[in-house]
Amino acid sequence: ILGTLGELERKLAELERTIASIDRSAPVSEPALEEEPAPAAPAAEANAGGSRVVDEAVTASAPRAAGGAAAAATAGAGAGGAALPAGAPPAPAPSAGRSPIGEHAEPEELLRFRDRLELTARELTNDYNALLARLNEPPPAAAPATATISFARGAPSLDIIDVEGLRDAAVRALESDPSGATAYGTSVGYPRLRSWIADRHGVDPERVLVTNGSMQADAFLFEHLVHPGEDVVVERPTYDRTLLSLRERGARIHAINLEEDGIDTRALARLLGGGRVLPRLAHIIPNFQNPAGYTLSLAKREQLLALAAEHQFVVFEDDPYVALRFRGESLPTMLSMDPERVVYASSFSKTVCPGVRVGYLVGPAALIEAISNLARDTYISPSMISQAIVYEFCASGAIERSIETVRAALQERAETLSYALRRELPEARFHAPEGGYFMWVTLPHGTDVRALAHAASELGVSVVNGSDFLLEGGENTMRLAYAGVTPKQIDEGVVRLAAAYRSLQRL
Length: 507
What we know:
By secondary structure, this protein is an alpha/beta fold. The protein is built from 17 helices and 14 strands. Helix 9 links the parallel strand 3 (231-236) and strand 4 (252-259). The chain starts with a helix and ends with a helix.
């Protein structure tokens, strides 16, 4: 590059001298290159056959680009021999022993040829400077690492949420009831949604309290019913937030083993026998339990209600997944079987979307009234606008379409997970769920799932340790949530999980 630019400059200087010699009495229309030499890079001197490389622009009476070919040549001394940009005009080829303009050219031809040379010099300089600028740019950022495949969160992926239906419901909520949707409201919730829920369960609206998510419904119930030192029965394993809330209340927690058809009612009966334990309530997740994915059978529902009647405790039926059955036969709620002894909770997080944060309680009217007073003292009222949107979504029938979409996706994902585990991790034991979001996986005795979770995270997979859902034990278990991952991600995630497991076996 430097040699070509040097040769171009030499030819231009030669041309200027030729023009001046034709008529020394008349000034040349445009001045020649300045004669004062500027320092040249050694490479330029060698390649240009001794011609100088000027580090300044060619001046002319007409405006020209600053910088000139010589400036580019000097700048290029540090470029390490970069290639000439594609599409740049070729420099005039040097001729051996004669000028490229011919022997008998007219002055006008000489001037036109000089203009062409100067134009070429400017274009080459611009292209060269652009090339250097690109070479000096910082390298592009490294491609992001492979995204983590998460089996950790119990939330649906965006592709199975009816975003358009929610948008339309929000518009209707603000058009049909702007004052109700935007006001503080009452502690029992948005009246229209409260009535819709009551109709759904076949109860009076006075038996319904709508809250900011079902976890807040749980918290209100525990605060009202459970006092420090009181006995509470839970499933083993159970939802980790339930354990945390009850511990904070100071409850004495009795965890009863969970079987594939629900809580071990015979073990519960033995615990209650002789009056040694007098529980205030039993917390049960009857359908597609979190974290195990198991469902309480009809026979065990009846047995549990019989024990509750005999020992005078409340059954807290925590049921956010009930609508998400994709196989098998639906079972009646315990609320419908014994409405005076059961307090029922559910949520729209799994059937509409988690972001609406709308849940509810259904129970005896006196209990709901007491909890509504607690709610009023806590937050005046729950979010009216969220509940108004959920009401419009439900009343329009969009919720039924949403449930069908979610069911179909969950079935495909659960089946993909089951197949992938059997293929990649045959050591794993699990019970394929009939609905819901979760699968409980037990690995061979002695497996350290905490170590496995760490190894899996390094391969871009996240899981939840089973011990998080237990008061003690469970070191060889884990919960896999499949609602937020596509079948393709599930398949790849299990391949990585199995690779992490094999890496631990080699240690």
